[in-house]
Design a protein that fits this description.
GO terms for molecular function: molecular adaptor activity. By secondary structure, this protein is mainly α. The protein has a domain of 202 residues: Cyclin A, domain 1, CATH 1.10.472.80. It is built from 20 helices and no strands.
Length: 607
């Protein structure tokens, strides 16, 4: 801190290299009080270092010349010895001055010497240097190497400090005035109070030049250090970049190898997946072919079974038709044979007929209260047998409907049903034609009995009109209930499959064809009943009135008219049976729809 303060006091002390050596003994002496140390050093420099800096950066040549002159005057032999070995004042005098004897004296010796220095004129320091040389002339005269001289003046030697001080005082007294330094060095001047004196006794341009050069060197050194740091950073960055590049290339190589391995694995997996897909496709194809074969086989078996079943049904129907035809022939022959007997038994037949009507009325009442099976058993034994046949037909149809739920088989079943219905209608039409022929024959015989049966016919017409009114009323109620049920189920039937819609359309077409056949049959029957009478009547509805118009002409025997009425009754029974068959077919379709879509029908719709 003291040296820094000295540099702030005067710029030259920033450039003086020996200032630490000069200030060292004072700093050690006043190390606990830096302010006193600074002021002592400043005082020493102002008084005992006068003219030291005039030749800066060189040593004070004028002071060294004074020392050389004094030494030459007092000890020429020693001076000549220095000259002989080329030892100048910068070698034997300047080291003592720049260090203030701190290198060659101990602490006690130095304190004793400087007590005398500070108590005398400032020139006493120069005399002390000459005294040290004279007191050490013996060792110096034995030195003949310049390095030995340098070593001697920079190290402590065996010297009596008291003798040296006495010699210095002797030199102060005996030195001539022309070479005495007290006449060339100013007296002691203390430091000024309040502020330190200005110290500018030095070549300013040299100090500034050195400062500039030193600053320039410092800047160059800073630039060099910056460039070195930058070069080091660039080198570090280059090394780091090279390491990063090497690492990146290595990672890229590893990633590329890993990618190639993954691609190979992926290709192998794709190949395996392709093979598995091919196997799966082949298995699916085989399963599909097997399934198609099984479906085809089951469909063929089912079609064969249905065909056999229909054939057996047709055979049974043929047998039944033949049996009915034989029965009708027998009845006709028996009726022809019994005509004469019945002429005599008109009254008895009337009673029997009334009993028969009462039974039929009772059966109608039971039909209203009973189920559909009781409704089909209305009038006679023939109607019951035909109803049983229809029930037999219903069972296999109901069982087959459960198996028709597989796509194409359902359509085949419906086609087969329609073909069967068509064949049955054709056979019924043929039977009706045969029956009409027989009715023509019966009409020929019945014309003879019309007169006798006038009264009976009137009664029969009244009773039969009431019966047909009740039947039509019941039928209207049943149809109204069916329409209400169909309306309530219409919303639920909208999502049914197209095959069900087509089936219903086929059923409606069949119903229409049946209605048309029934109308044609009624028209034919009307024509047949009108031909023998020749009477024109009003056009008849599809109600029960068209069955009684043939009885309005009273021109024959009553027994013949009774047989004709029984023939019409058979036709009407057939019509009702066909209507019941259509209703049963509709019920079958409804049951099939309920079985296929059980969630869309409530339990109340199952009846």
């Amino acid at each position: 801190r003291i040296l820094s303060a000295m540099a702030h006091w005067s710029a030259i002390f920033h450039e003086v290299l020996y200032l630490p050596l000069l200030a060292f003994p004072f700093i050690k002496l006043f190390q606990n009080n830096q302010l006193i140390g600074f002021e002592v050093i400043a005082t020493v420099i102002m008084n005992w270092c006068q003219d030291w800096f005039e030749y800066f950066p060189n040593p004070p040549i004028n002071l060294l010349s004074m020392i050389e002159n004094i030494l030459g005057h007092l000890d020429k032999e020693l001076l000549q010895h220095f000259v002989t070995y080329n030892v100048t004042t910068q070698t034997y005098a300047w080291p003592f001055l720049e260090t203030f004897f701190s290198e060659v004296l101990t602490r006690e010796e130095w304190l004793k010497l400087f007590d005398n220095v500070f108590s005398n004129h400032p020139c006493f320091l120069l005399m002390a240097v000459v005294a040290y040389l004279i007191c050490s002339r013996g060792p110096l005269l034995h030195c003949n190497i310049k390095e030995d001289f340098e070593y001697f003046f920079h190290h402590r030697n065996n010297l009596d400090i008291n003798a040296m001080i006495r010699e210095a005082y002797h030199l102060m007294d005996c030195t001539p005035a022309d070479i005495h330094p007290k006449y060339m060095i100013n007296d002691f001047v203390p430091l000024t109070k309040g502020q330190y004196p200005i110290f500018n006794k030095y070549p300013v341009f040299i100090v500034n030049y050195q400062a500039e050069e030193r600053e320039k060197i410092r800047q160059e050194e800073l630039e060099y250090l910056q460039e070195k740091q930058l070069a080091h950073e660039l080198h570090s960055e280059t090394v780091k970049r090279q390491a990063d590049d090497a690492t990146w290339y290595e990672q890229q190589k590893l990633l590329q190898e890993a990618e190639e391995q993954r691609r190979k694995i992926l290709l192998e997996e794709e190949k395996k997946l392709t093979v598995q897909r091919m196997r799966l496709t082949a298995m699916k194809r085989e399963m599909k072919v097997k399934e198609l074969h099984l479906l085809d086989a089951s469909r063929r078996r089912f079609l064969k079974h249905q065909q056999d079943h229909r054939k057996s049904e047709l055979r049974r129907l043929d047998d039944e038709i033949a049996r009915k035809m034989s029965l009708r022939d027998q009845e006709t022959s028996a009726f022809v044979q019994d005509i004469e007997v019945r002429k005599m038994e008109i009254d008895t037949q009337r009673q029997i007929f009334e009993q028969q009507l009462a039974k039929e009325q009772e059966s109608v009442t039971q039909k209203v209260k009973g189920d559909l099976e009781t409704h089909r058993l209305k009038t006679d034994i023939e109607d019951q047998m035909f109803t049983r046949l229809l029930e037999k037909e219903q069972r296999p149809d109901f069982n087959s409907c459960k198996e028709i739920e597989k796509g194409l088989a359902e359509a085949d079943q419906l086609c087969i049903d329609l073909d069967w219905e068509t064949k049955m209608l054709q056979k019924q039409k043929a039977d009706d034609l045969d029956q009409e022929k027989r009715q023509l024959e019966l009409l020929r015989l019945a014309n003879e009995n019309k007169d006798r049966e006038t009264r009976l016919l009137n009664v029969m017409k009244e009773v039969k009109g009431k019966q047909w009114d009740a039947v039509m009323e019941r039928q209207a109620q049943v149809e109204a209930q069916q329409r209400a049920r169909f309306v309530s189920d219409a919303a639920r039937r909208q999502f049914m499959a197209d095959e069900m819609t087509k089936t219903m359309e086929h059923v409606e077409q069949l119903h229409k064809s049946l209605d048309e056949s029934f109308e044609r049959l009624c028209d034919a029957r009307t024509i047949i009943t009108h031909k023998p009478t020749g009477d024109l009547q009003e056009s008849r509805n599809r109600n029960t009135k068209h069955d009684t118009t043939c009885l309005n002409d009273i021109s024959s025997d009553s027994s013949a008219q009774l047989s004709l009425d029984r023939g019409r009754t058979d036709l009407e029974n057939k019509e009702r049976e066909l209507m019941a068959g259509v209703r049963e077919l509709r019920q079958k379709l409804a049951v099939q729809a309920r079985q296929r879509y059980p969630r869309n029908f409530s339990p109340t719709n199952c009846t």
